[in-house]
Amino acid sequence: MKPTRLEEFYTKFPTMMGVAAGAGLPVERPREVGHFNIFTMEDLMRSYPNRPAMSFQRQEFYKLCLMSGRSQIEYADKVVEVEHQALWFTTSRVPYRWLPHDLNQSGYFCIFTEEFMRPSRSGVALEELPIFQPGSCPVLEVSSADYAASAAIFQKMAEEISSDYAYKYDLLRTYLWELIHRGQKLQPVPAQAPAHNAAARVTALFGELLERQFPLATPQQQLRLRTAKEYADQMAVHVNHLNRVLKETTGHTTTALISNRVAQEAKLLLKQTNWTVSEIADSLGFTDVAHLCNFFKRQTTLTPGDFRG
Prior knowledge:
Helices cover 41% and strands 14% of the residues. It is built from eleven helices and eight strands. It has helices at 6-12, 41-46, 144-161, 168-186, 198-212, 228-235, 239-250, 254-272, 277-283, 289-300, 304-308, and strands spanning 36-40, 62-68, 71-75, 78-82, 85-90, 96-100, 106-112, 139-141. The strands form two sheets. The protein has a five-stranded antiparallel beta sheet. Strands 4-3-6 form a three-stranded antiparallel beta sheet, with no helix packed on it.
């Protein structure tokens, strides 16, 4: 699944210029690194009536959306129904699609690249934040008060991006960090900083190595690490030590964690791509289709064909 590039995003929505004047992909100031732009949901909806439903996709940039209106959001292998108001975060690592139930949608959204968001003063990078982790909940229902507070920040960004203030991009980054941290505080389970001990570091490194292999973008892409020993070798630890640590910190064995993640990717590829079962089996490191079918049935009780429907 090839991610949508910024140029393709602006081509698909030629009537959307962002809040600042201009058309197409905005020209960045020479000293600026990365890209940022802000839009209203009303502008987006003007192009929806005559367009086909959004396809399941990844995009090469981040997106943060404040939305009001009934819609459905599908991400990874989950489906969320938005009945009123929500704050929604997307990354290039997790495919998604948005299906509005009606055209009465309001709010804002902004798109930005990782390069635009320099590490915060605390040294935290975007991909390290809990809100952007694959297993997090990126769709957060918000109260009217939280919606109004977030909308006020978007409005400040909308005003600033059109200004001629010399340091406006630094200010825009500050507003964007504020929205991201608001989202993290609204997560169902408060984000806890990982304990700085050896077990936590081993667990975090394993999780990073595991997620780094996904998503699979083409049938030719294959998993580089497939077994517990391969992960242990990559981390320069004994496989028994890795198993013991992961069992203590997560309650699951290394093999179970790998299998769960591979099964999740198999579900996505079966539902959201037209790859053959043979291509999926090959990309996920199975020796043949029968091996994938047996594995998938143990994980889900269904065969790949039954799951795909």
